[in-house]
Amino acid sequence: MRITALFLAFAFWATPIARAAKARTVHLVGDSSSCPSPSLAASELKKLLGHTTVDTDPSGTTEIWALSDEGETYRLTANGIARAFSDPARRCEERARAIAVFIALLIEPPMFDGPDDALVAKKVTPPRSRFRLASDIELLAQLDATPEDRGGIAGGSMVRASIGLPFVRVTLGVGGLSPVDLQIGDVRGRFTRIPLDLGLRGVLRRGRVELDGDLGFAATVTQGQGVSLPRNSQGVRLDPGIRLAISLRIWFENRVAAFVGFQTVIAPEPIDLALNPVGKVGSAPQFWLGAILGLTVRLH
Q1: Are 216 and 227 in contact (CB under 8 A)?
Q2: Using one digit for the tens of pLDDT, what is the confidence trace for 167-223?
Q3: Under CATH, what is the fold of the domain 134-298?
Q4: How wide is the angle at C-alpha 141 spanned by C-alphas 138 and 142, nearest 5°?
């Protein structure tokens, strides 16, 4: 009911009554036995008006507001213009409040102190969280070599993704390396490796400069083939290990970065290498050292 009265009051604001309502006294008249009675409506109206006198004197000549009870509805009339309200429950006190709000908004509309822009709702930007997730993808070139045995250098490329908080992230990488010849005992073999890794990355960034450290699990799919035997054969093995890496990254416009770094893959228990028809000829290298160079693209 209160919401209905407010809506009707604002709709009625632009009428001649609103523009002409400047009197200091408001007279509420009607049948004292009606619902609501003029005295009950006047009592509620006095609570809302601060500069206007309210009475129920029917002899007034200006600002006369007539109340009439029509059963399930009640009507307010002033200067020949009538406004009807509906209240089938006949709640007299609620009716009196509705009439009081309606008249008060017309006689003494609300006034606000301060500049007009104080009334304008301003968009509030929530503070940016320090723990916003970041996701990157890296494209890198890699050179790998082992200090063990007499071997060459393998080159290749990798793709590595990272996601997590600004200071710690999860990484996942996959790549491929060119074949490398290794002298294992008296046998020379050619090995092609496909490195896979999953790990954690610690990040320390200051402005555009970022220092990263990686620690994680490495699994290298290794294909070996003898090259110095009368009858060469080949096989595929999975070589598990631990990957350690450090890299220096320089960011451009917070979206693209160039980086350089070094890594090592350590196999705690190197796998045995066997070539038919010789059998076991040695073990795979326990250490691989690599240099990496690439670009990072920030996705989020």
Answers
A1: no
A2: 999 999 999 999 888 776 667 778 888 999 999 999 999 999 999 999 999 998 888
A3: Porin (2.40.160)
A4: 115
